[in-house]
């Protein structure tokens, strides 16, 4: 346990010192501001000159009010969150191979399983921070643009959906960690994330989203299909995927030949 | 437990490529074992198997008398290592990189980090990010990471790569001190026999995956081939004199005689040629240099 804390501490230091950490924070802030800007445009449609943007805003069918705004933020937490989380986990695992630092982690008194688990924990903390930023900024921007129909009753449900969406997205990190470890680079893992997002969209739109792990968080937020409660089979599928990914990553680190 | 490293029939195949073939090595406590081979000879693959990073296709190995099974925890708290080029976390400083290793090795406090920074003269760079270090200082950092926990066994893959001549001497002395004063067993690979012979107590030569020769460095001198070089004005005529006496030689700009008796007694050749009227202006016994010896050994191996 002591080793996990030591290893986690190092992972967090590496993350904090990396440029990519600040880039992901910037991306989270950017997307929050974009959602706020979209609401602002819907709120003041006459401020836009006639043109493509005005037509798009009119066709979006959005209403400038808190419930709609919260729904958009929940979708952002699912879709954008999953992409950003995928990039984060790809980098945390893949960079050890790209930077050839992995060999320094292989013959230590700290076991390889401990290193994998501490990396996953570091990824979770990083991803949770990203979604806390999206959540907090979402509320602050909503107040800043003075959206109508605010009620404190909205907050618990927003927090619940947001938290569950974050958790569902986090569960999908471990398979990406496996691909980065088996592919010995972050590039195959990033490719895998992009592929899974594409497939999630497809499965969601043909009504099979409940059975494809990467479609499940999107299904929950309503980004694909209709939002609502997840069937038990979806919960089992996504949990099983997370377990398989974690076990696979640990086995890969423990038993695969490490040539890099 | 006399042998710190013991490999038996260690082999690694990558498909049809036999990277390492039946390598059996025993390294005793306190010994500095030089593992010599050309690029691609199988040095790094052997080292990775010793460190549990690669699963052997065949054979077994023991460290500190205990079998090492791929994927299982080994006695890594006693082992320091540097495999191939040193790579550190570029965004961390030298001190932070060393702190990271120190924590993963469960070392207490900052004492070990301070000590190794001082031992390897990294004080000037301790707050410099690893990405800005020169190749030589990166190598120094890699060696510092290997030594930070005062290991009982060191496995170093070409540790003098990228170091300037003074750095090479410094590392050589550091390793020699580790072995002599702290009884550390060192397994060090190189493709430079000249360098390795200055530090190792025993040398194993690996070529095309096979361990083709092991030699004590004390016996290295006697294994080097000697040649008698004879310089003459009239080489053609002199060569006929040597041929008539049945002495084999090669002739280019000078005459070179490998015959053991001629090498040990050059005065006989001198008398022979002078007596025939062809006095040599040069008569010198040349000893094969270590690189030539190494290349000769690997060329002699039938593959």
Q: What coarse outline of chain A follows from CA principal-axis ratios? A: elongated
Q: Number of domains in the coordinates of chain B?
A: 2
> Largest sheet of chain A, if any?
none
- Biggest sheet layout of chain B: 6 strands, mixed
Largest interface, Cβ cutoff 8 Å: A-B, 28 and 31 residues
Relevant CATH superfamily of the largest domain in chain B: P-loop containing nucleotide triphosphate hydrolases
**What is the helix content of chain B?**
25-40%
| Overall morphology of chain B | elongated
Radius of gyration of chain B: 24 Å
CATH topology of the largest domain in chain B: Rossmann fold
Number of helices of chain A: 10
Query: Which oligomeric form is depicted?
Result: heterodimer
Instruction: Quote the beta fraction of chain B.
Output: 25-35%
Mean pLDDT across all amino acids of chain A = 91
Q: What's the CATH class of the largest domain in chain B, please?
A: Alpha Beta
Report the mean per-residue pLDDT of chain B as an integer: 91
How many strand elements of chain A? 0
CATH architectural label of the largest domain in chain B: 3-Layer(aba) Sandwich
**Can you write the helix and strand succession of chain A as a string?**
HHHHHHHHHH
Low-confidence stretches of chain B: none
Secondary-structure map:
The complex is a heterodimer of chains A (260) and B (303).
Chain A: H1 2-17, H2 19-43, H3 52-59, H4 66-98, H5 112-144, H6 154-171, H7 173-183, H8 186-205, H9 216-221, H10 232-255
Chain B: E1 3-14, E2 17-28, E3 32-36, H1 43-50, E4 58-63, E5 66-67, E6 79-82, H2 94-104, H3 111-119, H4 135-147, E7 153-157, H5 165-182, E8 185-190, H6 193-197, E9 202-207, E10 210-216, H7 217-223, E11 226-231, H8 235-244, E12 250-251, E13 255-257, H9 260-264, H10 266-275, E14 282-287, H11 290-300
Parallel strand pairs in B: 3-8, 3-9, 6-7, 7-8
Antiparallel strand pairs in B: 1-2, 1-4, 4-5, 9-10, 11-13, 11-14, 12-13
Helix pairs in contact in B: 2-3
């Amino acid at each position: 346990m002591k080793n996990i804390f030591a290893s986690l501490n190092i992972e967090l230091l590496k993350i904090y010192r990396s440029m990519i950490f600040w880039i992901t924070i910037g991306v989270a802030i950017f997307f929050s501001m974009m959602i706020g800007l979209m609401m602002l445009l819907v709120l003041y449609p006459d401020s836009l000159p006639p043109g493509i943007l005005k037509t798009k805003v009119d066709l979006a069918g959005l209403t400038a009010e808190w419930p709609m705004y919260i729904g958009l933020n929940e979708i952002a937490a699912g879709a954008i969150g999953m992409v950003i989380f995928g990039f984060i986990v790809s980098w945390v695992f893949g960079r050890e191979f790209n930077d050839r630092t992995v060999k320094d982690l292989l013959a230590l008194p700290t076991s390889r399983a401990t290193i994998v688990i501490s990396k996953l924990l570091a990824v979770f903390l990083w991803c949770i921070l990203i979604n806390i930023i999206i959540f907090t900024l979402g509320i602050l921007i909503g107040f800043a643009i003075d959206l109508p129909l605010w009620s404190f009753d909205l907050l618990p449900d927003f927090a619940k959906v947001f938290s569950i969406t974050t958790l569902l997205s986090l569960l999908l990190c471990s398979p990406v960690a496996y691909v980065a470890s088996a592919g010995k680079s972050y590039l195959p893992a990033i490719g895998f994330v992009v592929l899974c997002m594409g497939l999630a969209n497809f499965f969601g739109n043909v009504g099979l989203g409940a059975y494809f792990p990467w479609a499940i968080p999107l299904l929950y937020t309503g980004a694909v299909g209709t939002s609502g409660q997840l069937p038990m089979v979806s919960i089992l599928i996504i949990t099983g995927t997370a377990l398989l990914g974690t076990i696979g990553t640990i086995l890969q680190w423990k038993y695969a030949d490490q040539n890099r | 437990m006399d042998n710190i490293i013991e490999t038996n029939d260690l082999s690694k195949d990558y498909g049809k490529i036999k990277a390492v073939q039946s390598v059996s090595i025993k390294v005793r406590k306190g010994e500095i074992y030089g593992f010599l081979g050309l690029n691609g000879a199988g040095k790094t693959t052997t080292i990775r198997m010793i460190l549990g990073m690669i699963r052997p296709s065949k054979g077994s190995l023991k460290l500190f008398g205990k079998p090492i099974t791929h994927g299982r925890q080994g006695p890594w708290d006693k082992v320091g290592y540097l495999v191939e080029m040193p790579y550190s976390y570029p965004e961390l400083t030298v001190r932070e990189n060393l702190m990271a290793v120190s924590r993963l090795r469960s070392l207490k406090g900052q004492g070990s980090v301070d000590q190794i920074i001082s031992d390897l003269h990294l004080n000037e760079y301790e707050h410099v990010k690893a990405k800005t270090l020169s190749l030589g200082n990166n190598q120094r950092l890699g060696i510092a990471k290997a030594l930070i926990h005062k290991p009982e066994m060191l496995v170093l893959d070409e540790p003098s790569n990228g170091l300037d001549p003074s750095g090479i001497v410094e590392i050589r002395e550091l390793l020699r001190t580790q072995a002599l004063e702290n009884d550390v067993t060192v397994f060090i690979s190189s493709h430079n026999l000249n360098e390795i012979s200055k530090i190792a107590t025993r040398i194993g030569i690996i070529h095309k995956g096979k361990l083709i020769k092991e030699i004590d460095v004390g016996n290295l001198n006697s294994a080097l081939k000697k040649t008698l070089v004879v310089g003459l004005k009239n080489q053609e005529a002199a060569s006929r004199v040597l041929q008539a006496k049945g002495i084999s030689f090669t002739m280019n700009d000078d005459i070179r005689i490998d015959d053991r008796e001629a090498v040990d007694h050059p005065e006989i050749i001198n008398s022979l040629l002078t007596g025939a009227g062809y006095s040599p202006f040069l008569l010198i016994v040349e000893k094969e240099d270590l690189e030539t010896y190494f290349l000769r050994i690997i060329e002699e191996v039938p593959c």
